[in-house]
Amino acid sequence: MKVIIMAAGVGSRISADIEGLPKCILPIDKMPLIRRTVSEFLEYDFEVIVVVGYQKEKVIESISDLPVKIIENPFYRITNSIASLWFAKDYLIEDTIIMNGDVFVTSKIIKQIIHSDKSPLMLMDNTRIENGDYYLGVEKNCITHYGKNLPLSQRSGEYVGLAKVKSKDIVDFRENLIKLIDKECFYYWWEDTLYDLADEQQEVYVEDVNNCYWSEIDFLTDYEKILTKFNEQF
Fold first, then answer.
1. pTM here?
2. What Pfam families does the database record attribute to this sequence (predicted)?
């Protein structure tokens, strides 16, 4: 099984507060976030692919002694994460987890997505209905609605930042990714590959993380909350 970690973005909303560092190398208990994530997956014998771009040298340095494959998105300033995944498309050949590099998740969440038999699968937090960043609407365990400004009545929870596509679905997923790039949708998120499938009436499954802690780092307060939570519980 593979995991592809997206670590190419600039992180403009937090950049000024962290001296321009890539978000994914911010330390948690003295360990860069991305190193912590990579190490978790290596414990399960995953093949790990990291897509870099912004300040790639610093990201690579933080994991340089780990058995990781590095892919570069040289157009990270003028594209979004769908382009980063396109550069890694040749690795989309078997069961694959795709994850944003600026997301902190507990080992329980990683274990959950590894062992789930659903595919394609996205994770969601149903405790975050009003104060999240990107929302999913779910019926019968599948996506029906999605968006940053989804009406409250259509929200089932906040998207967590990682998904899994099993080998039986990986060809359709990869072909849809290529189709969107061919249509010059360079500004899309990589998740739009899944949302597009849902729009075509294909089943994209959702599981709740069962109140396990996680956080995406968009602002300095997000990072500070992770540090506080980590010191309290981990």
1. 0.97
2. NTP_transf_3
